[in-house]
What does this fold into?
Amino acid sequence: MNEPYKMILVDDEDEVRGRINSKISSNSGFIVVGTAGNGYDAIELIEQFSPHVVLTDIKMPYIDGIELAAIIKRDFPTVRVAFITGYDEFDYAREAVELHVSSYLTKPVTQDDISNFLQKLKIELDDEFQEKYNIEVLRKRYEQSIPLIIDNYFNSYLLTSLAGNASDIENLKEHGISLDDTRYFLSFVQLERNENLRDVIEYEKLKLSVRSVIQTILERYTFGYYSFMFHDGIVFLIKEGGINFLKRVDQAFYEMVKMTEKFLSVKIDIGVSELHREFQTLRIAYHEAEKALGYSKFLNTGRIVYINQLEGQKPKVLNLSEAEVQTIEYAAKFGNEEEIRRVIGDLRNSALQHNHVLANYRFYIINLVNVVVNFAESVKSDMQGILGEDLLEKIAGFRNLEQLFDWVLSILLQLRTLNDTTKMTNSQRLLDSAVTYITTHYRDPNLSMELVCDELGISISYISLLFKKHKSTTFVKYLTKVRMEKAQELLNFTGDRIVEIAHQCGYRDVYYFSHSFKKFIGVSPKNYRDKSNA
It folds into this structure.
């Protein structure tokens, strides 16, 4: 890496921060982009500067170095952590190992200590960038570790007819691939193309790099998985296992998005199927993940999309061919008016070729209308309100196929105009639920984004997107705003002690409450009350 690595220093002693900062020379390969006196300020600096390394004291007020390292590992998985410590307790060392802490500096810190520490850390970071993210190295590793024949067998199985190709399954089993022992998610990963990815060869190389980064993340989480290239994306089969599997796999998906964007400068989208078991459901799982990606563009739900968050029920079985149904749905959800007219026109021409009367198409009509009804439900539209009459009566009034197709086209075009409203309504409803939960539970000191997600049944990545998109803030900042506004109210209109107000606003520690209040309002709680009563 040509540019110096960015570092943030965290220590509650100004003198220690200054002394360490002064010992980091310009030719060390590192530059200090920010310093903080406590862990909470450090988190804000990490969000602002995206450093490569955080060097933190292990014992500080509010949250200590161990807690800060855990937060960084969870929310900023690409950032390395190193400790400054004068303490040598076994429990601390053990926790640091589990958090993958890079190294230690022991107080008092000398120039030689700093120089040796930075030299060792720079070698590790250089090796990481060279080994993990060099495209040529990744391609060689891929060719050596995953035989292309396995990719071919998976591709062959998904591309063959619905009757299936039993030999592909047997060949995969012979290579140690099993989907019968436990349930699995199928995730379909696609790279966002841009002006720099027009060259086909470079694009394929980048896909190999993305695949290798994702494999590294899955291996670190100790998930059982299989992967293969398919069409214009990458398929990952992630096998169920371990405690808190659903939460851990969601965190892994979040890391995939962040890692590839940070180290490969490419954005990825991930569509995730329902949980499945056995080879026989592999096609179904793939179509669910592919459909989730399609919905992501339609509903703007973010880069990680679970099919079970978008569809309340399984699609109904129709008598139309699967290809025809998919063509209608795709045109209705993603096409413009011209494309919808063309799809319905082609379907009309195909149906009218036989020149049969309407009575011979009773099941065909029911299934075609079913497609329209299902689409209306997916965009949360009231069919009765659109029709202005009973649906069954409307169908019974058709005298020929021309009338049926004219009606289908008209309804689909009307539903299409409700797109933007539907997208806003769905996301706003979830955000309103999250906000309501915060405003009714802000007194709980254990309130967290994870707790709200568990209550609402949505993922951390999605709720983060909602707060960022609709409120231009983060969950933590919004919670702090609610608590601070309540604190102002209590300080203005009650005689409660400040320690009591802190507890009423969800803070166990009155000192941290005072620190947060001063940071948010600009003055301490006591000074605020004195000015208000003056």
Remarks:
- Residues 72 and 79 are 7 Å apart (CA to CA).
- The chain is about 60% helix and 10% strand.
